[in-house]
Write a structure and sequence with these properties.
It is a single chain. The chain is mainly α. The chain is 59% helix and 6% strand. The chain is built from 42 helices and 14 strands. Strand 13 and strand 14 form a beta hairpin. Helix 24 crosses helix 25 and helix 31 runs antiparallel to helix 32. It is globular, with a radius of gyration of 33 Å. It starts with a strand and ends with a helix. The C terminus is likely disordered.
Amino acid sequence: MWLTVMGPVRAWQDDTELELGPAKRQALLALLLVRSGQPTSLSTIIDVLWGQTPPSSAANVVYRHAAAVRRLLETPSGADAGEDGTPATRLARVSGGYRLDASPSTLDLLRFRQLRGAAEDMGGTGALRDSVRLLTRALRLSRGPTASGILPHIAQHPYFMAVDREYLTAVKEAAVIATAVGEPGSVLDILQPAAAQHPLDEILQAQLVRTLAATGRQAEALEAYHAVRTRLAEQLGIAPGPELRSVHQDIMRRDAHKAPRLSPALPTEPARTRPQQPRRSLLRPSQLPPDVQDFAGREAALARLDVLFPVDAPVPDDAGRVRAEPRSTHDTGTEDTPPRPPVAIVGMPGVGKTTLAVHWAHRIAPRFPDGQLYVDLRGLAIDGTRVTPSEAQRAFLVALGVPDREIPADRDARTHLYRSTLAGLRLLIVVDDVAHSDQVRPLLPGTPGALVLVTSRDRLGGLAREGARPLVLADLSPAEAREALVRRLGGRRTGAGSDAGDAVDSVDDVAAACSRLPPASAVAGADVLRPDGHLPCVASEFRARAVTLDEFTESGPHSDIRSVFAWSYRQLAPDSARMFRLLALHPGFGIAATTAASLTGAPLELARELLAELTRAHLLTEEAPDLYVLHDLLAAYARELLRGSDREEQRGLSIRRMLDHYVHTARAAATQLAPQRTEQWPLPRLQPRTTPEPLPDRERAADWLDRSLLPVLIPVAGEAAARGLHAHVCQLGLALEVHLDRRARWDEQLALQKICLLSAEAQGDLWAAAHAHRALGFAQGRLGRPVEARTHLFRALSLFTEADDPRGQGATHRALAFRANAAVRHDRALDHYGQALALYRSAGDTLGESSALNGIGRTLVLKGDHHAALDHCARAVELSRAAGDLNGQAAAQDGLGHAHHHLGEYDRALSHYRRALALYRELSDRCLEADVLVHVGQTQHAQGYDDLAAESWERALSVLDALHHPEAGALRGRLAELRAAVPREASG
């Protein structure tokens, strides 16, 4: 027998097509087929077939039709029977309903899933061409929309729509992989009808346009793009989204340069091959740093900038129209208007480029109602903290509300998404401290509306072709330098009494010695403002020295800046001077007091006193309580002093104490946040005079990880690896894995775990390599890269098996189950969870057993077996409660809520969700707190309490926004739809 539901519902016995009977019987058969292997209750059948107004005879009608279906499925010849003589396809009566049992040899949907699973397995081994062939075989089983031919209102039920989405996801996957391996034509005959059936699915349409172009059919590709653009405008009133615009730009670039780059990198595309989502609402960022209160001078430079972009001039939109209101992300305009040329403020270090750029940006900010973006690229940083263009693009996209998981890792794909997202927006983008043209070029928008303001020590001649308008910023004029210093010092010290003339001369001398550079002037001003400071003496001291600083030799006359720093440095006490030098060893921008104490080996209170002295001397800036920043110029000077004053072994010991500080504090933080979940690895011995950060509670632990460690995590891990400190590297990888995942910092997770993997392989450490592979696989899965995810996870499984670690094997099976559920392969997920359960039990790991049981319960919910799901989740609650595992209890309570929700037992669901909420709040796990709040809102929405649902989602959104979580954008869209629906329902 052969049954089909991927298209018309049909049945064959050998070569004979069978008569299926009346419409309701066909609909019942279709429902049982799409739920093959899963029990379907009588109430569900009645709901699908009749909706909310079933006749009183509905149950009897179902019984009659079910009996007819059972007779239909009987195999007279026995050719399709199993070994025990039972039909391979049969309808079984189960408690409260029916279950249709079929196999891939008798049902097209199961054959489709079998082939798709085999294709995924092939992809996991790197055999991508074989993967494409299997996928296309699977996709060619379809003959149209799921269960086409049954009554239309029944065909629109979510059970049938879910199969359509499953098919569409596979189409998109096939298109991505086929294009990546250079065989785009192999899927075109599948892609075209799918695109015709879903004319408003932008991702699918983009795949079609890309595939047509990749097969050389440029004209058809452009025609398809303009057709979907017209449909979107006419039917939805919106412009093409980032995916479509990016493909269109690719085609236009191909025409312009005759050098196509239409094949997306394989790892990035699957993240976006998902069912069509509502268009996101972009955020309005406001990232400009504060303006300088005592800004002085620069009148000529400001006038020049105003000429380049008049402050009072209205900003035209893409079509040349002047608009006062913020531009919607859906606005359309002419695509022929060229992008606005960037404005570049260039000049020597310390001349005040950033101060001027930020000041002018605040002046013109009102002209850019869609927001302001700011990034410091740290272009000349030599300590590993330079920001790459790709990292800056990611930060900007996240600031604009693009979910992190939708941001490609491939450099070109990320640039396309960045420019597509900016299209139509009026943004002011300030890119600070650019090293060279190539560093800023990927951040330039491809369409008009946005203005990019760049600062750099380089002339940026490479941006000439983009029409860059450079403003070369010289040092302050004598009058401007005097005004700036006078404002800093105040009139009492610079212009009072009979010595006013001498004071003015001294101010001019100090300004000249500072090379009229703002950072040096700040240091000199601090010296004068000391209790024992005297302006004429400071001026005399500056005049007596003329030592150059290498960074300033290019311009000759500015060499005296070293004497400015040296004068302040010589005023320091020996311990403070040593602190200043050693701060140059820190790999990142912000330095915590405990980190500084560890670098120097000083007690914490003494370190704070030394930091305070450096701050008073303007050699250091306290950005936040106990968090300090060393200016680039001063860091360069400190490094210069360090090389001449401190022996290599002393510097090495300071770095070791710093690494010990980070590793021991990270372990303590991880233990605070998840005491039962932290993998145990021997801590490296704490060096004497190292100061770990005190973490009294979970909130403080999470805050320290976010503010102090994450900004420098990769340089710190890299430093430890470079010094062969394998235990330090492994500790960081284990301690940060869960936190990075909950913060959706998956790019950093990949970078960290790759360092861990390299270190483990260098040391021949199987166990550490297995952990790194597992973490890499899970992160790749989060980023929508199933092939890479499975490759890492299966490698982890192999290594954990070789290391004879059942706990590690169990955790890897759980990760594989998670990926299987994401791919709608629930039976495979259950198999992985079952193996994990057995492994945990063999190891006596109660926590792991609880997690596996909860995973089984959640998977059973996805399969529709909600009563069985309740049993598994309830057992998970008991085990985690007995072990004192609050995390496990919360997860299992959330699982129970899911099961009750799908059974329609909404009050019970809410009761379990509230218990989970209380536990997550006790744990200070704000990410999962938001997750449960979303579930609460879903249940309240199902109850018809949309006002309460909106409140729950608003609370969840406030948490996600505070965490800068990529899921915030999707939730914001759902909340907007819910709010929009309430008035319509009320009025109806």
